[in-house]
């Protein structure tokens, strides 16, 4: 068997892959031996292409030694795990460095990723890896999660059948596991980045990366990589409910690699998910999201029970789709739009100098969030420019899990160090925009109009004489909801790379109204704001007032 060969470190061009630890999974995918998503088929094709076009080395001796450690663990690696492990740990370039030194594993809940992480960590500190002081850090947002994979290794060492043997090779306690021969250690760490700059890790494992809202904490742990040979990063996760964070970034990167748009640069994306939400209704498709399912009958029984609960009440049991099927839903409530369609707003906004626009304003609370949106139209394409003010004395700030400081640095919002967001701040911003664009009308909730009435009249907007203010009523929102839904479905709205607006939109839900209509509400009242999206809605109630592109006579904006 190829896997039983001793190490062969002579580089050679391989036109075929003769390593069963790699090919078993590939053949399952290619022959239909397992139901696999489109991304798996793309990955298999990608791996075959890499082996056919590059000089690669498979270290068979290393594979044999690593796989020998399985006897100490309460499980054997499944085909997909052997595939990932071997490519990550045992395939090298001609210069002896790992071909894939960064791996992203995205599988449904219950697939066994924590056991896999523990096995990888254990192998990395042994003589089979053979690199001294090759520390492995297992990281997660919470201590409990970070400790899960660590405890898997700890329990192997504590097993009475293994204890005496491992005492000769390792020292361990409930905080750190150390190899006596390599001096390498396994430690678990949480997301607190303080005092981590001195790390000298050989490998960093990030578990449940869906919980990371940004790269700040991850970067702290990875800056120490490169001080040891063969530095590696491993990301493992199910999907979650944090959007536009680390997970979505990794998924976007994976998509480009698997489509051939981007070179992998050592990044191996192993993605398991439903191709379409409706596939959940055929149990045969569940293994697309969980490649361990054919081998774990108890897990299948549990998923069958959860599926029945989901069918009965999808709104309450939405986690089934998000975490079991890796098919995320935007929220427990009916979302404004699918996340993919919200993400599609991240397209360039053209130069709009002199263009006519509608200004929508959401001024719900003066001591909370206030938002304004400029809406433009070019035929069937709509563009938006957005701005937000945040009162630092808002009682809700402590509850909000969003990188507001980062968004401030990016110019997407500004904090107001006062008891409230004064109306003149909003009108001052509008004046600045009038120097750039033809602001035709202002659209604002009728209930809050009184707060801005005087200031708006002072810059030329009123609801009586000029009639260039639209006082938005609930009936207006119900009428425009259908149009807004169409814009998202057709991906016809763009506001650039604006994570704040994506957050606002993803926080909104559809609320049934009279006569089969819908209006908008908040998914969660205190911690998930919708102000920017509601300002966009206000502007959309007047989108019919914007001239068609061929009717536009561009003028110099009004200077006030």
Task: List the defining traits of the structure above.
560 residues; alpha/beta; Rossmann fold; Nucleotidyltransferase, domain 5; 3 domains; eight-stranded mixed β-sheet; seven-stranded mixed β-sheet; 19 helices; 35% helix; disordered N terminus
Compile the SSE list and pairings.
Blueprint: E1 12-13, H1 20-31, H2 38-53, E2 55-58, H3 60-68, H4 79-89, E3 91-93, E4 102-106, H5 113-124, E5 135-139, H6 143-158, H7 160-167, E6 170-172, E7 176-179, E8 185-189, E9 201-207, H8 216-222, E10 232-237, H9 246-258, E11 267-271, H10 286-289, H11 297-312, H12 319-324, H13 339-343, E12 356-362, E13 369-378, E14 381-391, H14 404-409, E15 413-416, H15 423-434, E16 438-445, H16 449-458, E17 469-472, H17 474-489, E18 493-494, H18 499-506, E19 508-512, E20 518-522, H19 531-540
Write a structural description.
Helix 18 (499-506) crosses helix 19. The chain has 560 residues and is α/β, with parallel strands linked by helices. The strands form 4 sheets. The protein has an 8-stranded mixed beta sheet, with helices on both faces. Helix content is 35%, strand content 19%. It has 3 domains: 1-100 and 272-329, no CATH class; 110-237, P-loop containing nucleotide triphosphate hydrolases (Rossmann fold, 3-Layer(aba) Sandwich); 339-551, Nucleotidyltransferase, domain 5 (2-Layer Sandwich).
